[in-house]
Amino acid sequence: MFRGRITAVLAVLALTTGCGAADMTRQASPFANAQGARTVTLSVPSWVGAQANVAVARYLLEHELGYHVDTVQMDEVPAWDALSQGRIDALLEDWGHPEQEQRYVEEKRTVVRGGDLGVTGHIGWFVPAYFAERHPDVTHWKNLNKYADRLRTAESGGKGQLLDGSPAYVTNDKALVKNLKLDYQVVFAGSEAAQITQIKQFAKEKKPFLTYWYTPQWLFEKVPMTEVRLPPRTEGCDADPEKVACAYPHTPLQKYLNADFAKRGGEAAAFLKRFRWTTEDQNEVSLLIADRKLTPEQAAEKWVDGHRSTWKRWLP
């Protein structure tokens, strides 16, 4: 947890890999949208890369700018609702929610764009490198059925297993399996942490697996994986969620701020708009939290100590 000088009326949720994707839609910080107060409330998604963003932003807001920072863990879509209502002030990593963007940014104008995070996200299907090296053709979707028998598990009902994380994450996998006529069953681990545990166990035993995964992600440092080529993207190929039969996009990850906070949030709002780092930066902090078991504050402090020239540019 973070330093005891921070007063939080609500229980602050620990930013660890073990956090589930709790639905906190009814929880709001008393700091959110508090005019004139040096307080900020940040949404924390359940995956560790996004937790790394919040850890570093929080550390600098507290130690360099003198703010009190509260955090609320939320799934992606509920976080948009909370952001619009002023129950949180900022969302630092969005992977693309066009419906919410249209509703809250374009129509209601209760949310404003906060700029690029500086990190490009990509979702895909991956197999372990040790399996791809022995069976290079597994890295093309047309050959996946050939390996379905080898990828069966007790949970996949006689079909090959496609391991997903949380059902709350952005995923087209059920539609892809159906529309590409693949002999696979999507099995949800339940969270990023549970999915990582399963992947590590497979890797330890050198078993083959097929998994939904994403970049940036620190786990590639520990378990090298090779992406499976899905059908190429075309304009509008994923417009209908039921008919998707193409690869996931490469998405420049975005920040969003509550509109009132963006206007009246002073130095904090200016800082969050300027917050922009690289995939390597995010992975460095994520690895410290998830693999080396530092607390988020310890990981943030370590990164801040070594990257002064980067974060100095973010300060108003």
Q: What general outline do the C-alpha atoms trace?
A: globular
> In what range is the share of β-strand residues?
15-25%
Main beta-sheet annotation: 7 strands, mixed
What is the straight-line distance between the termini?
27 Å
Low-confidence stretches: 1-31
Cα-based radius of gyration, to the nearest Å: 20 Å
Give the helix level as a range of percent.
25-40%
Structural class call reads alpha/beta
Number of strands: 9
Q: Total helix count?
A: 11
Average pLDDT, rounded to a whole number, is 89
Order of helices and strands: EHEHEHEHEHEHEEEHHHHH
Topology:
Blueprint: E1 39-44, H1 48-63, E2 68-73, H2 76-85, E3 90-94, H3 98-107, E4 111-128, H4 129-134, E5 160-164, H5 173-179, E6 184-188, H6 192-204, E7 210-215, E8 225-228, E9 250-258, H7 259-264, H8 266-274, H9 279-290, H10 296-306, H11 308-311
Parallel strand pairs: 1-2, 5-6, 5-7
Antiparallel strand pairs: 3-9, 4-7, 4-8, 4-9
Helix pairs in contact: 1-9, 1-10, 9-10
